[in-house]
Structures are given as structure tokens and as C-alpha cells.
Amino acid sequence: MSEMMSLREMKVNQKGVIRMVSGEGELGRRIRDMGLVPNTDVMVIGKAPLKDPVALRLRDFTLTLRNSEADFIFVDSSEE
Amino acid sequence: MDQHLTLALAGNPNCGKTTMYNALTGARQRVGNYPGVTVEHREGDAHHNGRDLTIVDLPGTYSLTAYTPEELVARDYIVERRPQAVVNILDATSLERNLYLSLQFMELGVPVVLALNMMDAVRKQGKEIDTPLLSKLLGVPVVETVARIGGGKRELLDAAIAYTAEKTGDWKPLTISYGPDLDPVLQEMVAVIEKTGFLAERAPSRWVAIKFLENDEQLVKLGLQSDAETSATLSGMTAAVGRHCRSTLKISPESLIADYRYGYIASLMKEGVVRVIRPQARLQFSDQLDRLLTQQFLGPAIMIGILYAIFFVTFHLGAIPMGWVENFFAWFSDVVSATLPDGLVKSMLVDGIVGGVGGVLGFVPLIMVMFMMISFLEDSGYMARMAYMMDRVMRAFGLHGSSVMPLIVSGGIAGGCAVPGIMATRTLRSPKEKLATVLTAPFMSCGAKVPVIILISAAFFDNAASVMFWTVLGGWIAALLVAKLLRSTIIRGASTPFVMELPPYRMPTLKGLLIHTWERSWSYVRKAGTVILGISILIWAMMTFPGLSVDDMAAFDAQRTTAEATLSGAELTTHLVTIDNQASQEALRHSLAGKIGIAMESVTKYAGFDWRTNIALVGGFAAKEVIVSTLGTAYSLGEVDAEAAEGLSIRLAADPSWNRATAVALLVFVMLYAPCLVTVVVIARETSWKWATFSVIFNTGFAFTLSVIAFNLTRALIGL
């Protein structure tokens, strides 16, 4: 069972594979420079006390981004 | 063979680059700024096997785009200064992401030596890296290091020196395939570039072509200046392929390039560079710590505790050496007073120079303690967690999660200081958010405003603690609202992407902390000292000249003679002091500052300030501590100690020109008006003189408007 969803909708401890990154310009570039490119495994490992930003684990490191930035990232998620 | 070598140290933030730099260069370091930007340029010397080396520490970056000053500085350095080699430090625990930057150096063609740092952590994670294989696949030397203990630094320098000896000719850029959509057009672009020699002095043709495809603002602009025709051809090709990519792949060429770079790295990894020997079942230490430290309720609670502890330690521990420095200057000024005859020279030395320099140096212990702790938080990885937890709140005001620390240090808890606060904004990598933080930090209740708050509350209000509480809260509200205002007007614009690494928790090295602290303090003393000395003398002169007229002087002398003739003992002493104080008050009134104060009365009366308050506020521009002591002089009470101003508060409470409305207006004004001189200089250093000037004018205007409102509102409320 898997479906495409935006990274924002993922829950803590949920895993997935990035399928598409739609941001452009500086934001799109920053996201990709940090390794958020298609076919990357990600796992949501936490959310800040106010549910935004979100913390991710990918490529053996931890990254945090705002929900508004997570909206540009689409993930094929597997249930955990 | 004896040639001098320049090696540029590059790498991602938090990869241990600075630790390696410290290990390589020791104390032989020079710090400056790159021209025109507030990015630090550090270089240091090293000797290895009889060779003299200059090591340049480039700013930590994840990429080499034109979006941030750090990245521009790093790549301009390599392109323009052409170091013999780039020593690229990588955090080997996240090799893939770190190699992304390495690839960009290699595409540029500069000789690169890779240092796989934190190999101890890699082994602890149960992983193994096939270094020879990575070296073979990439065709560059790869050395394993553990920078914290200096492990592998000799081998690294050996490899770098040997490699530069081997690579003496042209740069040999690495060619990465960017797929069927971009490769053909890249080839065509390279052909155009090679035919015309377009930007040939700057970089290899393929790199120039890639930067055009990435719409790199800096390079496209440079190209337009040097050869508009070729530049237009290339831009046309870029636009065409851009349309094609967007319609078929729904992606820009710039994005495609980044995707392919990671694809290239993935293909390297598939060769088996990293092997997992012991899979880790349980959470790693850092993740466990995060479960606690960023937990929904505990996280913020612990953060408040840590912030409070830092604050407490800084301003209580820092107060001890600060007291030594102050005592030294007090002693020194006594010595000067005792040796020199009365007169202008003495007055200038004691009140102008010693006072001014002492004021600057008095902050040094505070800055040292503060930076020691800020460095600790930064190097340990906790600072990033603070930004993570606070971002949602700060963003509502157009700020960044990392704005919290500078605001608190500046006086978010009463008694801070905007000088280290503004210097702490260096950790903020988002230019707009940083500027808004720098400009609003001076609204906080710094330690020098506290005596004014105490004086006013003692004179006009019963509950000093509640006055203090409301002024501190008022400072926060003003800072956040003004930040919001600035970010929606003159510093308008979408927020800089937050996308930030949460580095694993690490124990900082003492050496790193000490070097960092020393650098900050020294650069503060050197840069701030000179400007402040000059302006201190200027303000002293304003409050001294032209002084009493000959007639007035004679009148006071006559009073003294009469007193000496008619009185004796304690009575005489008291009377003489009264005369002296009246003389100082008259002198201040006749000084340039006094004239300004009187001239300003026509405006300041709307906030209820008379000329005495005005002079004190003018003097307060030099340092807010001066406000209370100048008020003392203006009310002919002689020099009033800011810490013990009971006499002055009684005097103010009894003065008919003072009431609660004036008191509230003064509190509002002192909280918000122009930052003190030292702060202004630091603002200029962290941003530019333009913004420093802005903060003086804007804050004063803002403060005045609000204090007029506060004055009239309070008057209406208490029925005057």
C-alpha cells in the first residue's frame, strides 16, 4: 500500500521515497542541494513543538525544513 | 621545490573544517572580512616537511551557487586566487551529501584532496568506507582524518603537497553527464564558449555552460559585461532548453543538474564505497537526545532553562572580570587625576579618553564569556535545535528561529547587552532575517537601561519589580512588532529558505572554543575601539565647551570666598560642594550639549522632557549608563553613581516639572531610542553604516513618537 503525498502530510516515524520536487529558484535549489532529490529515502523523525518545522532523516543526516517548504516535496509513502 | 603553497580548506558547515583548520594552523591565524560582505576571511600558516603553507579557511557551504555571499566568496576565491589545491573536508558519516560539494569543485577543475573526517564516528556507527576505492573512482587523493584529535593531519598535508607537485598544469575538470535533455545543449554551448574564448580567464568552458543553465546570476552578469553577444547566444540556448525541460519533465534545468549530481554520487555508492558491517538496531545517541531535547513540552522548558543559565552565568560570572577592568580604569583615572593639574587636558584624559576606552574595554570580559557559551551551544549542535523549536514563533514576525538567541542576549532578560547580542547574529545565514534581528535587538532591556528603570520606578512608582517586568515585556513587544513592520516594508520579501541541518550532538573542543572567543573579542577591541575613542572625545567636548563665562566663573569664586570667610568645618565643606555642583550645572547648561538640550525643549516638551533630561539623553547616546549620572549633574547633585541614585530619585519626585506621565514617557524613550555608540559601531560592522545610521534615526523617531503618545495618554489617565 503506497500513495503519493506531500511531505507535509507525513506523520512522525513515517518513511517514504521522494518522487518529485517542484520548487524552483533559490528554494528549489536549497532543497535539492541538501539531497532532497527524487528516489531518496526519507523518514520524518520529529516535528517542532508547534508542529512546524519538521525534522527528517535522509542520507545519514538530519534535516529540518518548514511545512511551507515541505509542500514542494512529494513522497511515495509506506505505512509504518 | 621550495615553492610556497596555498591550500584552500572547504567543506559543508559542521563537517569539522574549522577544527581541522585550527589543528593545522594553531595560533598563527589572521582574520579579516572579504571586501564588501560580512563574510570572514581567515588564513593561517603551517609548516610541513620544510614547506611553508598558507591555509585559507573558506566559509562552510553546501553548494557553490550564487544565492548566498558565503558560496560566492568560496567560489570566487578559488576562481580568482587559484589556490594550488582545495582541501575538501567531508563529514564521512554523511558522505553522499558531503560529496555533492566535492563534485562541484571537481567540475571546476581545481585540484582537490578529500579528507574523510570523523572516521571515528563512522566506525562507531558500524560502517566502513573503502577509501582506496573512492580515490580510484574519483581520481583524487582521499585521506581519513579525525580532526578533533588531529588524526590524519600529517597524511593530509603529505597528500596535498604530493598532489600539487603532480598537478602543476591546467585545471582538469570532471565531466558529469546531465542526461539526454541537457548533454547535447551543453556540448553546443561548450563549442560556442571555446570558439569565442568566453570567460576563458575565469573558468573551464563546461563549467561556464553549466552555470548558464543554472541561471547563475553572478556569472551571467559577468558574461554580459565581457562579451554581450556570446552571452546572449548562451542565454538564448538556456531559455530554449529550459522551455523544453519544463514542458516535458516539469522541471527546470537547474533542478535537473542538482538531481543528476546526486545521481552521479549514488552511482559511486553502488560500487560499494560504504559498507555496513554491524547494522544498528537501536537509536543513535544523538537521536535519543533529540527525543528529549526537542520533545513537545520538555524541549521548550529545557531550552528556557539553558537560556536562563547562559544569561545568568554571563552576567554574573562576566561581572567579576568586568569589575576588574572597571576598577583598573577607575584606579588609572585616579592616578591621572592626581598627577595632572586641573584643567582641560586632565578633563579630556579622565572623562574623554579613559572614560571612552574604559567603556569599550569594559565590555570585553562580557563578550568573552558570552561567546564562550554561544560557541559551545553552536559547536555542540544545540543552537540548531533552538532555531528548530523557535522558528514557528519567530517566523510570525518575519524573523528566523536563530533570532531568539541574539534577542535574549541583548536584554530579552533584563540586564543583557546589545553588543554581544548583535555579534551573535553571525550564526544567522538568512540576510533579511539577520538584518531585522540586528535592528530590533537594541530595543531590549540592556543592563545600562536598568539603572534608569530603577531610578524612575523608585521616584514615581511603588512597585519597582512590576515596572521592570513591564519594561522588559515592552522591549520584546516593540522588537517583535518593529521586526514585523520592517519585514513588511523596507526589508520586505519572502523569507530565506529555512532548510537547515540538525548536526549530531558533539562535545566541542576546548581549543576551538578558546580560539573562537579570542577572535571575537580581539576583533571587537580593534575595530570598535578606534571609532568609539574618537566619538567619546567628541561627546566629552560637547558637554564641556564652551564652559562657564569669565563672569560666571568669577561669581562662583566670589561665593566660595564668602563661604570660606563666613563658615567653617563640616558646614563649609557641604556649602562648597553645593557651590561646585551649581557651577557644574551652569557649565553643563552653557555647553554645546546644554544648548542643544535647551534648543530641543521646543520639541521634547510634547513628551514632557525639559533641557536637563535632554542633555542626559544626548549623553546617553555615548553609553546609556551616562543618563543617570548626567541627570545628577543637571540637577546640580554632582556626579551621581548610577548604582546608588536615591538622592536623585527623591529630587525628581519632588520636582514640579516631573510627574508620572513624564516618568512613563522617559521610560518609553530610554527603552527605544538610538542604540548606544558601541552598539551602533557593532551594527555597522555586522551590516553597514547605512543601516547603523538608519537605526539611530529610526529608533529615535519611533521612541519619540511613542513617548509623546505615552505622555499624553498617561496624563489623560491620571487626570492631569
Summary tags:
heterodimer; A: 80 residues; alpha+beta; SH3 type barrels; 2 helices; globular; B: 720 residues; alpha/beta; Rossmann fold; Helix Hairpins; two-stranded antiparallel sheet
Give a written overview of the molecule.
The complex is a heterodimer of chains A (80) and B (720). In chain A, 16% of the residues lie in helices and 44% in strands. Chain A contains two helices and six strands; from the N terminus they run ββαβββαβ. Chain A is α+β, with helices and mostly antiparallel strands and 80 residues long. A six-stranded antiparallel sheet of chain A has the order 1-6-2-3-4-5. Chain B is α/β, with parallel strands linked by helices. In chain B, 65% of the residues lie in helices and 7% in strands. Chain B is built from 32 helices and ten strands. The radius of gyration of chain B is 31 Å and the shape is elongated. The mean pLDDT of chain B is 87. β5 of chain A pairs antiparallel with β10 of chain B, so a sheet runs across the interface.
Quick structural overview:
In chain A, 16% of the residues lie in helices and 44% in strands. With 80 residues, chain A is of the alpha+beta class. Chain A has one domain (2-78): Roll (SH3 type barrels).
